[in-house]
Specification:
The complex is a heterotrimer of chains A (492), B (292) and C (311). Chain A is α+β, with helices and mostly antiparallel strands and 492 residues long. Chain A has 14 helices and 26 strands. Chain A has a domain at 361-423: Dna Ligase, domain 1 (2-Layer Sandwich), CATH 3.30.1490.270. The two termini of chain A are 27 Å apart. Chain B folds into 2 domains: 2-84 and 267-290, Immunoglobulin-like, CATH 2.60.40.2250; 97-251, Roll (C8orf32 fold), CATH 3.10.620.30. Chain B has helices at residues 97-103, 110-116, 129-136, 145-159, 173-179, 184-197; strands spanning 2-27, 34-44, 49-54, 60-66, 70-83, 161-162, 181-182, 202-209, 227-234, 238-242, 254-260, 269-275, 280-290. Classes of the chains: A alpha+beta (492), B alpha+beta (292), C mainly alpha (311).
Chain lengths: 492, 292, 311
């Protein structure tokens, strides 16, 4: 640390004195005391700031989050169901060159997955050609038979996608999972940025960070580009499950940002295959629905009959081409965790290209040899249920007990199609500001957001960096003690 | 044989329904040697709009909404279907059943690909080892497919009792299997579960049944209401149908309405209503008569 | 504006007004009950609480404060606590449409009254408890006035408040006047207090508490906010604003209804009312309010799809 002596203020304050290195790739440091070039400015700033100043910045950020009403809902509490979304003070920095690879990879992936979806709901060439087994499709709970043969505007099934990336110890970004149904978290990305600019205006300016503020406009443009033909002034609405949904804050936030109506299923009415929203000025025709309601709940007439979140007849209006849903119905078949294992093959098959971003090695529990191997070594693997998200239904082998492993072994054997396993990965670490005022490494991932419209694919530079705030933890989901960080993608 | 079919459904609601959205699966399919010459759906009160479409499995659906307040909904499906004796004739089903089952996953022919999707669990039919054990008593090693299928059908007919009060539409195949009682829908579900558990594609067929045999023999069960039976796929012979409720191979006496993975895919009439009170009564009357 | 949102705003406002009104009525009547017991006052209390939908008859032997326990009755929708809970529930459905100050006010009121109602001293200090509602409601009206645009949402809030107020004043007038021959000055003071109108009344009529004057004031005074006429005028103002903002043709029916009601209040003489039958006069106004409420619901909230598609 001697090399930094000149930078230190007189009081010899080094917030990194506790920074413990592990096998994981560290985003900031190439080696102890040697920050990577794109982290230099942040590093120096941290050294110049006293512990008190950092603490004050942290408090200021918390207040700013509270004032913006950035909260998430915790289930099962009568009162005070809302909490501030935990946010780390220090931004995560990505160099321009690194980002360019990510952006290319994401565009490639979303294109291939859209082609895949079009195919599985039409000709099913990929199965006929033996690239993926038909069984995978027919046993996937997210395969929506109703979508067979339906013409989707511009063949865009997934127009809003959030892909989870992690960085492995060799420094490469790999895809952990795709979220092609109703990915959330983008509001935290946007509000987090706003707070960071308040807290570190000069640093932000000096670093040269690519902007993300146009996300809402890009989302609106994407939705508008999907409008059915002949509807010159489309009415676009955001369909939310309602105030009890954990992402309600985000729904309200995005609707406000885009200046569109936030509706619930009970506001909609389908008449003669046209969807209307019930307003005090009468029924108004709806053209595009950005829906944050799962397929199953969209239309009790077609899907779950007990659903009160959708509108009866909505699917038929959709089928008739009178309304557009974004994302399309049935996209979950492409983010099934077992289908995930085939995404590199899917990219090669439809685009004739090698994947820019690799997958994490994945074992299918339907495969007997792979199953036997994983079941014998559960302590080394992460086991995931194929249809779950948000960190639920998951076993993290190295951190699990004997009993948990036995339990999962039973579950896997009872329903092999429902599980996959992946080797435990050391997610990369980034510096985080801890409660006791130090800076320590914590594991992080990255969820960039991709918008696929009729005219262009937009990847907003950055995304949501999720942090496992507990020391040593690898689980970054907000429902499981995770938080977020602002993500700075530099021009250089 | 030409049939006139009438299938009448009446819902009576406790209090008036102000708005209803419904899907009917009541128009018979047209198939080779099974021609639906015409069909119509009469709905009372008259719907404010109606649309037709073909579903994933090729069945004919009618979607309609009613926006006049009503306390009774009457839907009558009438049709004329010509079933000739070539229909449902089994092809060669003498290959061993294991061979047949093993060929399915790799069969990339159009019909093979289509059949394969019926080999898995579906929303109302969950598979387990006890179905497989039961099936294997008939599907013994090396046995010809057709023979094994008939044997399973006969065993089910013998061991399960027809009982209209034992089950309802929500009863699971698992429960029926334990109770050994039920109606045609339950038996079809159980037999499908057995077949799928040993890797065979099987689908649920709904339709109607002539209730007297042509030779003037015994009354068959399942008439005067909708009927249901099973079809299973055999690579060389195509779809083979069996009726576990009556232990027969469907022939001229069965009129096919629709098919799917299980009852849930093709329930004859379902809907979402506003109002109507907590209870309603349902009356179904089916008439199948040979046309002059 | 979404019909659902308009509906929630309307009910939020109605329920809050109901809680406020009921609390004031109970508070003033409780005060008069503390005076030496008098049979007529007990039966007046009973008829008033019945008119509020608080079905709890008091017998002569009950201590006045014992009866306050039913105010809370959390399960009872028409209890004051029930009204506050309903107001809050409606507000929570439309939190994005109201200001955060409004939500915080209402939420705080809800938490204060539920917390107080479970405490032991609640029974011994009912007045303090009841005054929470009044203060909470004033504060809510205040922030509503100054923290959201006076557009459609605001007009629906006004509509709910004043339609409820007109109905509430009619109800309490009717119940209080059921046996005027037994009424004494204390009872009239109680009635005026329950409409926060004692001071305002004295300014107009001095301190002479003639029954007719009290009735006339609460029914027909055009300037005091807690009178039937004033409330109906506010209702008319809100409705015509809503009609011009939404541009539905179906609003004409509503305009006729409110126009009739308003002019009948503007031109009637109290002597005419008293000469005929106050009771049936009040019943008629309440029915007109109900009809108005239904019409609003049918035109803006829960209209049949055809009615609108035909246009």
């Amino acid at each position: 640390m001697a090399a930094n002596a000149s930078l230190l203020p007189n009081s010899v304050h080094d917030p990194f004195s506790n920074y413990a290195f592990t096998d994981a790739y560290d985003e900031m440091f190439a080696a102890p005391g040697r920050p990577r070039p794109h982290y230099q400015k942040l590093y120096r700033r941290m050294l110049q700031q006293s512990a008190d100043e950092l603490q004050r910045s942290k408090q200021q950020a918390d207040i700013s989050f509270l004032n913006q009403g950035i909260t998430f809902t915790v289930y099962g509490r009568e009162e005070g169901t809302e909490r501030i979304f935990p946010h780390d003070l220090l931004p995560r920095v990505i160099s321009g060159a690194e980002w360019d690879v990510i952006e290319r990879g994401l565009k490639q992936r979303v294109q291939a997955l859209n082609l895949f979806l079009r195919d599985v709901y039409h000709e099913r060439r990929i199965i006929k050609d033996g690239i993926i087994p038909g069984e995978l499709l027919y046993t996937c709970s997210q395969f929506r038979r109703h979508m067979r043969g339906i013409k989707i505007p511009r063949d865009i099934y997934v127009s809003i996608c959030g892909t989870d990336l992690i960085r492995t110890p060799d420094g490469n970004f790999v895809v952990l999972e795709d979220n092609l149904r109703v990915p959330s978290g983008v509001s935290y990305m946007l509000t987090g940025r706003r707070v960071m600019k308040e807290i570190f205006p000069r640093l932000f300016h000096q670093c040269g960070v690519r902007p993300i503020e146009h996300y809402s406009q890009a989302l609106l443009a994407t939705l508008r580009s999907l409008t059915p033909d002949g509807r010159a002034h489309p009415r676009i609405v955001l369909l939310t499950p309602g105030i009890y949904n954990s992402a309600y804050f985000e729904h309200a936030y995005l609707a406000r940002q885009m200046g569109i109506e936030l509706v619930e299923g009970r506001d909609l009415l389908v008449h003669d295959n046209v969807v209307y929203v019930r307003t005090t000025s009468g029924l108004q025709r709806v053209d595009v629905i950005y829906r944050r309601v799962d397929d199953d709940f969209l239309d009790p007439l077609t899907f779950r009959q007990d659903s009160a979140l959708g509108a009866a007849g909505l699917f038929n209006a959709y089928r008739a081409g009178n309304v557009v849903l974004a994302n399309a119905v049935g996209t979950g078949v492409a983010d099934d965790k077992a289908v995930y294992a085939y995404v590199p093959a899917i990219i090669r098959y439809y685009l004739g290209e090698d994947p820019v971003l690799n997958n994490v090695e994945t074992f299918l529990m339907t495969n007997e040899t792979e199953r036997a191997h994983v079941c014998g070594n559960l302590h080394r693997y992460v086991v995931k249920a194929v249809g779950e998200s948000g960190g639920y239904g998951m076993l993290v082998g190295p951190h699990s007990t004997r009993e948990q492993q036995d339990e999962f072994r039973k579950r896997i054997l009872a329903d092999p199609r429902n599980y996959i396993a992946q080797p435990t990965l050391a997610l990369s670490t980034a510096p985080c500001f801890t409660d006791d005022g130090r800076i320590e490494p914590r594991h992080i991932d990255l969820r960039p957001y991709v918008l696929y419209g009729a005219d262009e694919i937009t990847v907003v530079p950055g995304g949501l960096t999720r942090v496992a705030l507990r020391k040593g933890s690898l689980v970054v989901n907000s429902s499981q003690g995770g938080g977020s960080k602002d993500t700075w993608v530099l021009y250089q | 044989m030409i049939y006139q079919v009438s299938h009448k459904t009446i819902y009576r609601y406790r209090s008036p329904v102000s708005f209803g959205n419904h899907v009917a699966c009541l128009s018979p399919r047209s198939l080779p040697h099974h021609a639906c010459e015409w069909s119509e759906l009469q709905i009372d009160p008259p719907p404010s709009n109606r649309h037709e479409r073909i579903d994933y499995f090729g069945n004919r659906l009618t979607l309609f909404s009613i926006s006049d307040p009503h306390s009774e909904l009457k839907v009558e499906a009438r049709s004329r279907v010509n079933v000739d004796s070539e229909f449902r004739k089994w092809g060669d089903a003498s290959a061993s059943w294991e061979e047949t089952a093993a060929s399915v996953p790799s069969d990339r022919s159009r019909s093979g690909l289509d059949a394969y999707q019926f080999a898995f669990e579906s929303p109302r039919i969950r598979l387990n080892e006890s179905f497989a054990r039961y099936a294997r008593l008939s599907f013994r090693t090396g046995r010809p497919f057709g023979e094994a299928l008939l044997d399973l059908t006969a065993r089910m007919h013998q061991e399960f009792r027809f009982d209209g009060n034992a089950t309802n539409v929500r009863t699971t195949p698992d429960d029926v299997f334990r109770l050994k009682r039920g109606v045609c829908q339950d038996f079809a579900h159980v037999q499908i579960a057995c077949l799928r558990s040993i890797g065979l594609p099987a689908r649920y067929v709904s339709g109607y049944l002539r209730t007297y045999s042509a030779a003037g023999g015994a009354q068959l069960a399942g008439g005067d209401v909708s009927h249901a039976w099973v079809a299973t796929y055999c690579a060389n012979a195509g779809w083979l149908e069996v009726d576990p409720t009556n232990n027969i191979v469907p022939s001229e006496g069965h009129v096919t309405l629709a098919w799917g993975r299980d009852y849930g895919d093709i329930s004859p009439l379902r809907g979402i209503i506003l109002g109507g009170g907590r209870e309603h009564s349902l009356e179904v009357r089916v008439h199948l008569q040979p046309a002059a | 504006m979404l019909s659902r949102v308009a509906d929630s705003l309307y009910w939020m406002s109605r329920y809050l007004e109901r809680a406020d009104h009921n609390a004031r009525v109970l508070e003033s009547n409780y005060n008069s009950l503390l005076n030496p017991a008098k049979e007529s006052r007990v039966s007046r209390w009973n008829s008033i609480t019945r008119s509020l939908g608080l079905d709890s008859d008091l017998s002569n032997n009950d201590a006045p404060w014992s009866l306050l326990s039913f105010i809370a009755q959390p399960g009872n929708r028409s209890s004051i606590l029930g009204s506050i809970a309903s107001a809050r529930e409606n507000a929570s459905q439309v939190r994005e449409q109201i200001s955060s100050e409004m939500w915080e006010r209402l939420n705080r009121l809800y938490h204060e009254v539920t917390a107080t109602s479970t405490r032991a001293e609640f029974g011994s200090e009912p007045i303090r408890f009841l005054s929470l509602f009044r203060e909470g409601a004033y504060a809510f009206h205040g922030v509503t006035e100054s923290t959201i645009p006076h557009g459609e949402a605001w007009h629906f809030i006004q509509l709910g408040k004043y339609i409820e107020r007109a109905d509430g004043i009619c109800a309490v007038l009717d119940a209080s006047y059921s046996s005027p021959e037994d009424a004494d000055d204390l009872d009239w003071i109680g009635l005026l207090t329950s409409c926060s109108a004692l001071d305002a009344f004295r300014k107009v009529h001095t301190a002479s508490l003639k029954a007719e004057c009290v009735i006339e004031f609460l029914l027909l005074d055009p300037d005091f906010p807690h009178t039937v006429r004033y409330s109906i005028e506010r209702v008319q103002y809100a409705l015509s604003a809503i009609a011009s903002l939404t541009l539905t043709r179906h609003s004409r029916r509503i305009e006729r209804m409110i126009g009739t009601l308003r002019s009948s209040l503007a031109y009637v003489q109290i002597e005419e009312v008293m000469a005929r039958d106050l009771h049936s006069y009040l019943i008629r106004i309440r029915e007109q309010c109900k009809a108005l409420h239904r019409a609003v619901h049918e035109v803006y909230i829960d209209y049949p799809p055809e009615a609108v598609l035909e246009n």
